[in-house]
Design goal:
Pfam families: HigB-like_toxin. This protein has 58 residues and is mainly beta. The termini are far apart. It has no helices and four strands.
């Protein structure tokens, strides 16, 4: 599945992705687990993913 095929956060609701909305300064972002502390974070706007980044935010 690519980010281009995702229309809403519901499209990413798979247990293995561990999709979750972030809090605090990143509250407009969503995250999916990559490995250990690594996450791909992104914002949804009009059904598209923006500001995609790979981060270790823990």
């Amino acid at each position: 599945m690519s980010a281009d095929g995702v229309g809403t956060s519901d499209d990413l609701k798979r247990p293995s992705f561990r999709l979750h909305r972030l809090k605090g300064d990143l509250r407009s972002f969503w995250a999916v687990t990559v490995r250990a502390n690594w996450r791909i974070i992104f914002r949804f706007e009009d059904g598209k993913a923006f500001d995609v980044d790979l981060v270790d935010y823990h």
